[in-house]
Specification:
Protein name: RNA methyltransferase
GO molecular function, one term: RNA methyltransferase activity
GO biological process, one term: RNA processing
Low-confidence stretches: none
Oligomer: single chain
Radius of gyration: 16 Å
Pfam family, one: SpoU_methylase
Mean pLDDT: 96
Keywords: Methyltransferase, Transferase
Strand content: 15-25%
CATH architecture: 3-Layer(aba) Sandwich
Number of strands: 7
């Protein structure tokens, strides 16, 4: 087995990415503080053709050299929007017809491996702060909650890791439409 060279991977150019059909999926970052986590979310969102990222509250916006270390340019390919409050983003997404789902451990959460997506719907996922998670006021506004099953001693995963897992699951299901 031979590793592929970058030139053999047939990746989209920035221009091709901007023109490509995106998943009907938006990522909302609710008060995410780490520039490295934000950058990693941009990079993963680029990989899975996410439509847009909403950066809310204390979540930093591009351009930023620390964010670029993990985004590696994806902060220039993936569309983004800033909202002062996450509630504003959720209201806007609802008005645009999105089903908004918090990624959080809640009473009645749907386990990610049991998630069923409607092929006729657009979705937004809300990712929470590294310490506090998704704000309760935001959870209350969402159409549901998704939880990643965990089997070890820890009760949570890093927000960028969680985003990667959830985006993979959504992309895997949505691209089969």
């Amino acid at each position: 087995m031979r590793k592929l060279k970058i030139t053999e991977m047939n990746r989209l150019s920035v221009e091709e990415f901007k023109e490509a059909e995106k998943l009907p999926l938006v990522v909302v970052l609710d008060e995410v503080r780490s520039l490295h986590n934000i950058g990693a979310v941009f990079r993963t969102s680029d990989a899975f053709l996410v439509n847009c990222i909403y950066l809310c509250g204390i979540t930093a916006t591009p351009p930023h050299p620390e964010m670029h270390k993990t985004a590696l340019g994806a902060e220039y390919t993936v569309d983004w929007k800033y909202c002062k409050q996450t509630q504003e983003a959720v209201n806007e997404l609802h008005a645009e017809g999105y089903t908004v789902l918090a990624i959080e451990q809640c009473e009645g959460s749907t386990m990610l491996d049991h998630l069923v997506l409607d092929p006729n719907k657009k979705y937004a996922i809300v990712m929470g702060n590294e310490v506090k998670g998704v704000q309760q006021e935001v959870v209350d506004m969402c159409d549901g909650c998704i939880e990643i099953p965990q089997y070890g001693t820890k009760h949570s995963l890093n927000v960028s890791v969680t985003t990667g897992i959830v985006l993979w699951e959504f992309a895997n299901k949505m691209m089969k439409r």
